[in-house]
From TrEMBL, chain A:
Keyword terms, alphabetized: Iron, Iron-sulfur, Metal-binding
Protein name per Swiss-Prot or TrEMBL: Benzoyl-CoA reductase/2-hydroxyglutaryl-CoA dehydratase subunit, BcrC/BadD/HgdB
Molecular function as annotated in GO: hydro-lyase activity; iron-sulfur cluster binding; metal ion binding
UniProt record similarity statement: Belongs to the FldB/FldC dehydratase alpha/beta subunit family.
Automatic annotation (TrEMBL), chain B:
InterPro entries the record matches: ATPase_BadF, ATPase_NBD, CoA_E_activase_dom, Dehydratase_Activator_Redct
Name recorded for this polypeptide: CoA-substrate-specific enzyme activase, putative
Pfam families per UniProt: BcrAD_BadFG
Quaternary structure and partners: Homodimer.
Species this protein is from: Desulfosporosinus hippei DSM 8344
Cofactor(s) the protein requires to work: [4Fe-4S] cluster
Signal sequence, start to end: none
Gene Ontology MF term list: iron-sulfur cluster binding; metal ion binding
Domain annotation ATPase BadF/BadG/BcrA/BcrD type: ranges: 5-252
């Protein structure tokens, strides 16, 4: 076993990400089960059953960030997936198609060979949950049909009003039980409730460390560069029910706290303004978007997106777990979304907001116009929105982005200098 | 003291030379934009008109889509802030700016001091921009400069409903072949441009005075259509293509003055 004690948080992040993929590849070789899972589907059940997990959204983000998305998007195009479909889905369905061709013919397609992404094994079953969107239902159903494998669906209804009613929690807890029954059948063994409790406890420890990191951006200047959360997010998605996430996040939070005590900040002395970034990162243009902001001295200290995985609950209490997996802000009404974002903006002591109008993610984008309007009336902060996409590089225009963030910068400056009296 | 504002757009290049932050001593436009010979030519033209050299400029600020490729500039400022600055200088009562250029449509709301309160602009789509009008003028075989005249003669504006420039072009072609008068088609084209711009304006909050600038503001047919849609008078900024360059030159002046204080 590799000794990880001397590793930095960044090294741990890389190490465990690779480790997770290796475990899945190894499991496949040994004839053990591999599951592909939606990013905010409960991970606890499969981990308790020792199933190796792959998270297609994270994998797709990795392909996007390594500039390999176009190749697989073309495969999905050829299969007839409309370009309006979420690009995570299209990247993954394209990638799956290549894996499937390889499995059927024994020949590795050129696009798979060339793909910069980590190689992943095909799943033996999939698990999905519609607590972040309904695209994930059809996407996973398609995976299951294409590969002729079981699909576990955990139905989590949208919360049109808050607080979450007890009947909704009861319904979701029933869905959990149903998923456990399906899992027992697929795995051919009884569900281990003792181990499940331990996994739930582990998940809570991971989430606590995750929240520790996120809270550090409230310091001014900030020791945390918010864009780092986009990278570390890979482990809150893929390993929150393992100690990998806890170990890495604890290390990162410790490092940041140490920096804070020493007066070392993310932007050194150059933090001039602070922004909230609403929406998913633009993975194929991550460097461009980050540098564009950094060159203007704008640090991202607020983002509601990483908070999707703030699944805090009481281990052993299914209703509490159900609540954690349904109160995710994009699964709630406009009023609650506004409230969550408002807290993020004030928590990050932000001077302005950037809304990513993401062609892929309708749920995260369609309410932005309204949200921005309400929030501006409430806090008076300037905002801009830009057209983009998390993994389809064709839907983002760097020059358009630059103009908007420069204008935002100028508006924030004007606000801070008190030039404007309104 | 002389300062210069350079606005390099997608389809035109503009330079303003300002004396003491108050007198425009050159305001030149060349109808080709970034990546072409336009930027250099317009710079030379402005300098020769003013009888000045580049070294005479206390500060040069670039703006517009091609702002980062202007080597002569000391600084870049977004066209949103520059447009606001320039228009407010010319029309101090301005509250809302509608700026339509080659590939951008913007609505900018000003606060009482001329600062940018809010702005909205089109993203990755050329509908309602100068390019849209270019394409239409080509299929209609009517010069851009003559479009307003045709518009004024329209009896019943045709409907151009496609958002996509390419589909709108086919729509116009089929109307032409159906014998719809060019006057009415042009009025419909103007209405289509106006509806895009007004959508952004409504989001900003429509408050008078409303000032139009950008190359498309020279087409009075568009101005008419916008005014009709908003049910309010629309003022066309004097020399509407140079307002952002003017704003950049004013910013340059203010920065030099601020530094000398
Ligand atoms: S990006 Fe949006 S649409 Fe795509 S899977 Fe995630 S939540 Fe669903």
């Amino acid at each position: 076993m590799t000794d990880t004690t001397a590793m930095s948080a960044k090294e741990l992040l890389g190490f465990y990400q690779e480790e997770l993929y290796e475990e899945a590849r190894q499991a496949k070789k040994e004839g053990k089960l591999v599951c592909w899972s939606a990013s905010v589907a409960p991970s606890e059940f499969c981990v308790a059953m020792d199933v190796a997990m792959i998270y297609p959204e994270t994998h797709a983000a990795g392909i996007g960030a390594r500039k390999g998305a176009l190749d697989v998007l073309e495969v999905a195009d050829e299969k007839g997936y409309n370009v309006d479909t979420c690009s995570y889905a299209r990247v993954n369905l394209g990638y799956m198609e290549l894996l499937k061709q390889e499995a059927l013919t024994g020949i590795t397609p050129e696009k798979l060979e060339k793909s910069p992404a980590a190689r992943i094994p095909l799943p033996d079953f999939v698990i999905t949950c519609n607590n972040i969107c309904n695209t994930l239902l059809k996407w996973y159903e398609n995976l299951a049909v294409e590969l002729n494998i079981p699909c576990i669906i955990i139905d989590v209804p949208f919360n049109h009003t808050m607080p979450i009613p007890q009947y909704a929690k009861d319904y979701i807890a029933e869905q959990f039980k149903e998923a456990i029954t399906q899992l027992e059948e697929i795995c051919g063994k009884k569900f281990d409730y003792d181990k499940f409790l331990k996994v739930q406890e582990q998940t809570q420890r991971s989430v606590a460390q995750w929240n520790r990191i996120a809270a550090l951006s409230s310091h001014k200047p900030s020791p945390l560069n918010g864009f780092d959360l986009f990278n570390y997010m890979a482990l809150i998605v893929c390993a929150r029910s393992k100690d990998y996430a806890e170990i890495t996040f604890k290390k990162f939070a410790d490092e940041l706290e140490e920096n804070l005590n020493k007066g070392i900040f993310a932007f050194k002395g150059n933090e001039q303004k602070r922004v909230t970034w609403e929406g998913i990162a633009v993975w194929p243009h991550l460097g461009h978007t980050f540098k564009g902001l950094k060159n203007l001295g704008n640090i991202m200290t607020g983002s509601a997106y990483p908070g999707l995985w703030n699944v805090s609950y009481t281990p052993g209490d299914m209703s509490s777990m159900a609540e954690a997996y349904t109160r995710i802000y994009i699964n709630t009404c406009l009023d609650n979304k506004v409230k969550v974002l408002s807290d993020v903006i004030s928590g990050g002591k932000c001077d302005g907001v950037i809304y990513h109008q993401n062609r892929s993610c309708k749920l995260m984008s369609f309410l932005n116009v309204e949200t921005a309007d309400i929030l501006q009336k409430e806090n008076g902060l300037p905002y801009v929105s830009f057209d983009g996409d998390q993994t389809d590089p064709r839907n983002f225009s760097p020059a358009q982005f630059d103009t908007r963030i420069q204008a935002l910068d100028e508006m924030m400056k004007q606000n801070k200098e008190g030039v404007s009296n309104e | 003291m002389f300062t210069m504002g350079i606005d390099i757009g997608s389809s035109s290049s503009k330079v303003v030379i300002l004396e003491d932050g108050a007198n425009i001593i050159a305001g030149e436009v060349i109808q080709i934009g970034t990546g072409s010979s336009g930027p250099k030519r317009v710079l030379d033209e402005a300098l020769s008109k003013a009888g000045l050299k580049l070294e005479d400029m206390a500060k040069i600020i670039a703006t517009g889509y091609g702002r980062s490729s202007v080597e002569e500039a000391h600084k870049q400022i977004s066209e949103i802030s520059c447009q606001a600055k320039g228009v407010f200088f010319l029309v101090p009562s301005a509250k809302l700016i509608i700026d339509i250029g080659g590939q951008d449509v913007k609505a900018i709301r000003l606060d009482s001091k001329g600062g940018v309160k809010q702005f909205f602009m089109n993203d990755k789509c050329a509908a309602g921009t100068g390019r849209f009008l270019d394409v239409m003028s080509r299929v209609l075989e009517v010069n851009l400069d003559d479009m307003a005249e045709y518009d004024a003669r329209a009896t019943e504006p045709a409907t151009v409903s496609s958002t996509c420039t390419v589909f709108a072009e086919s729509e116009v072609i089929s109307q032409l072949s159906n014998g719809v008068a060019k006057e009415n088609i042009i009025a419909g084209v103007h209405q289509s441009v106006a509806s895009k711009a007004c959508g952004l304006a409504y989001r900003c909050g429509v408050e008078e005075d409303i000032v139009m600038c950008g190359g498309v503001a020279k087409d009075l047919g568009v101005v008419r259509a916008i005014s009709k849609e908003l049910k309010k008078p629309v003022i066309v900024a004097p020399n509407p293509q140079i307002t952002a360059a003017l704003g950049a030159a004013i910013f340059a002046f203010e920065e030099v003055r601020g530094a000398n204080k």
